[in-house]
Design brief:
The protein has about 600 residues and is of the alpha+beta class. About 55% of the residues lie in helices and about 10% in strands. The chain has helices spanning about 10-20, 35-55, 55-65, 80-90, 105-120, 120-140, 145-155, 285-320, 345-375, 380-415, 425-435, 445-455, 460-475, 480-510, 515-550, 555-570, 575-585, 585-590, 595, and strands at about 65, 75, 160-165, 180-185, 190-200, 210-215, 230-235, 235, 245, 250-255, 265-280. Strands 3, 4, 5, 6, 7, 10 and 11 form a seven-stranded mixed β-sheet that branches. Strand 4 and strand 5 (about 190-200) form a beta hairpin. Helix 1 runs antiparallel to helix 2, helix 6 (about 120-140) packs antiparallel against helix 8 and helix 10 crosses helix 15 (about 515-550). The longest helix has about 35 residues, at about 285-320. The relative contact order is 0.09.
């Protein structure tokens, strides 16, 4: 049976010592986020997911969801009761607005719970996760009447929500959607069309599901400029808040998927279903992007989540499995073999995993703080800076985070060797579940193009220049600790490679846009390495200071310094190669004709 223990100690380190959440106590919503409060939430959240949610991961994967003859869908055994406990515990309300029944805590705290859920059971976590994005869109673009009608029960978890974008012929290019919205005399719209790959499309966890659906009104432009967004509930909500008749929406089938079997990924059929427009006509894509940006950060966190649970199980196996002897001589002479953790190649995979996981946790929670600060920071300049940074790094967190999450999952399967390929041990599930995160909410190639094609040039490159300046300033700070000096030196060099790659784009992308597209993925990876390097520099500084102050938890902080050195010496060395990949341009990538590519 796979194990999972929520990493509460390291989470508290990031919250209290790295991003220092308490220092923002003067800002709205941060007043209650004292160390005592946040520590209590972290510990209890960790206990809840470890004891209630994690045990359903393997069984939920094996059982999957079921569509019945009447079109209804049920989730795996235990999911419904676990969701009831989740709602009763108020876990979904942590960072939701108080006006709609939320607790109004910083986004960071809600993000911690989302991450714990996804690590314990990604399929389960997707049900409330999708609802969070829908809530964000309705808060931002919904009318007061829509907010009053739908948000209170969505925030408390009595109802869940979805986002309906993709169609059989149309994925990333949403301008091609065919779902139609015909205006009705009562102010509603009749929604007709088919959507596919709809996570949490139907289930038995809540009595109602609020679908947010992209569709086109009559005469709308046949492009992304003609998309509108609609609320389409599973059951019509009466004016008094009670549920009325079943809407014209049904589940055609549940997709047969590689992973996340415990989540009902549905083909959704809309047959004249009643819908209500959210925001302005033909401005639906802007509203949907609110959901998508929230989802992209959440998906990046899923990459971290699968890496972490795979690492915990890989480490446990490496400590227990005995094969061969240590290269330096037997570690346990009384046994016939040493545990495989003595072997450098096993250690390589474990150290690569640990440094990615802890660096990515820091980046995700720092990113969640930027979301908070983009709305609540004291000055306009601080709000702009936070918004610039998180907008720039959202595709990096999603793309690089899920690339690395999948790599770590496969590495941990490799630690298990042949036993990692046997389904009963659960390592294959982590690999399968991690794989989808590289695909949905825009494949990682799309994330890379968003980064280089949109984010770099926005506002005259203000965001990337801010990131460069931030890193340069922190690398330049004096330190007497040799580990901190090493990390700062290597990070400064990697940041220089990122600057050079950025300049090359500026000089070569206009003349041939394929140069931009060909180098985008390498650039995203390089940005990810540099971003995690910034987190490791900060963690190294905190750890060195704690040791200098005589901390009693020496082992924890010494491990931080070792991991920081590992990142500096093993990961930042890739920066130069990635910059050269960017500078290789698109010539060879685009040179062959389709016929030449097909030659076998």
């Amino acid at each position: 049976m796979p194990i999972y223990n929520a990493p509460t100690r390291d989470t508290r380190f990031v919250v209290n010592e790295l991003i220092r959440l308490e220092s923002y106590g003067n800002l709205p919503g941060f007043e209650s986020a004292t160390p005592d409060m946040t520590d209590a939430i972290i510990e209890e959240a960790g206990r809840f997911v470890s004891e209630v949610i994690a045990p359903l991961n393997l069984s939920g994967d094996k059982e999957g969801c079921t569509r019945h003859a009447d079109g209804s869908v049920t989730t795996p055994t235990g999911f419904k009761d676990a969701y009831r406990q989740y709602v009763e515990g108020g876990w979904g309300t942590l960072s939701a607005p108080e006006a709609y029944g939320g607790q109004g805590l910083p986004h960071v705290m809600g993000f911690i719970m989302e991450k714990y859920l996804a690590t314990a059971n990604q399929a389960f976590a997707m049900y409330p996760g999708l609802a969070n994005g829908a809530i964000s869109a309705i808060i931002a673009k919904g009318s007061p009447e829509q907010q009053a009608k739908y948000l209170p029960k969505m925030v408390t978890g009595e109802w869940l929500g979805t986002m309906n974008l993709t169609e059989p012929h149309c994925g990333t290019d949403l301008g091609m959607i065919r779902t139609r919205a015909e205006p009705q005399a009562d102010g509603s719209y009749a929604i007709t069309g088919t959507k596919i790959f709809i996570s949490a499309g139907d289930h038995d966890l809540t009595e109602n599901i609020i679908h947010l659906v992209l569709a086109k009104t009559p005469g709308a432009p046949e492009s992304s400029k003609g998309i509108s967004l609609f609320i389409v509930p599973k059951f019509i909500v009466n004016d008094d808040g009670s549920l009325g008749e079943k809407n014209g929406v049904s589940v055609g089938s549940i997709e047969e998927k590689m992973g996340i079997h415990g989540n009902a990924t549905c083909v959704m059929n809309y047959d004249g279903a009643k819908g209500w427009m959210v925001g302005e006509e033909n401005k639906g894509l802007a509203a949907m992007f609110i959901m998508m940006n929230a989802a992209r950060l959440g998906v990046g966190m899923q990459g971290l989540a699968q890496a972490e649970v795979a690492y915990q199980n890989g480490l446990a196996y490496a400590l227990d499995r005995r094969q061969g002897r240590a290269l330096t001589g037997p570690v346990d002479p009384q046994a016939k073999a040493d545990p495989i953790i003595v072997h450098p190649d096993v250690r390589r995979m474990l150290m690569d995993a640990k440094t990615f996981i802890e660096g990515m946790r820091a980046l995700c929670l720092w990113g969640a703080l930027q979301v908070d600060l983009s709305h609540k920071a004291a000055t306009a300049e601080e709000r702009q800076m936070a918004d610039d940074l998180i907008s720039l790094l959202t595709p990096v967190i999603k793309g690089y985070g899920t690339d690395m999450g999948y790599k770590v999952a496969t590495d941990m399967q490799q630690v298990w060797g042949g036993h990692g390929y046997i389904a009963e041990n659960g390592m294959d599930q982590f690999v399968r579940d991690a794989r989808i995160a590289m695909i949905y909410e825009g494949t990682n190639g799309v994330q890379a193009m968003d980064l280089v094609g949109r984010k770099l040039a926005q506002n005259g490159g203000r965001a990337i220049q801010a990131l460069f300046a931030l890193i340069d300033a922190e690398c330049a700070e004096e330190s007497s600790d040799e580990a901190v000096k090493l990390v700062a030196e290597r990070l400064a060099k990697a940041n220089g490679e990122l600057k050079a790659a950025t300049m090359w784009f500026m000089q070569n992308a206009m003349a041939n846009p394929n140069n931009l597209g060909a180098g985008a993925y390498a650039y995203m990876t390089l940005t990810g390495i540099v971003s995690l390097g910034l987190m490791w520099l900060r963690m190294a500084k905190v750890a060195a200071a704690a040791i200098a102050d005589g901390t009693e938890d020496t082992a924890f902080y010494e491990a931080k310094l070792t991991c920081a050195r590992h990142w500096a010496t093993r990961y930042t060395t890739e920066a130069g190669a990635l910059r050269r990949q960017v500078e290789a341009g698109g010539e060879t990538i685009m040179a062959l004709t389709p016929e030449q590519l097909a030659i076998a």
